[in-house]
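User: Sequence in, structure out. Go.
Assistant: Echoing your sequence, followed by the structure tokens.
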Amino acid sequence: MSNLPSALAKFIHAVSNHQAGAPLPEDSIRDTLNALDSLNNCESAQAALTSAINNAERAGDLHVDGVPIAVLRCLIAAAATTEVRNG
């Protein structure tokens, strides 16, 4: 499965705990960008994330690894749009 939910959760946590003037943790940024790249370029990552979302919804959850399902659905839609645009 795409590691996007956990990477995003770590990034959101890092940003929410960020101190002014201090750099954001590079590993958090890198992991999130790599996960987004995978989502945008790998149909199996999109399918795995969709499956994780569907499983969470069946269980009555509103989040996957702490990330709101609505946010993840938007990222999947953006990835599909990128795929269509890039052919």
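User: And one key feature?
Assistant: The chain has one domain: 4-16+25-86.
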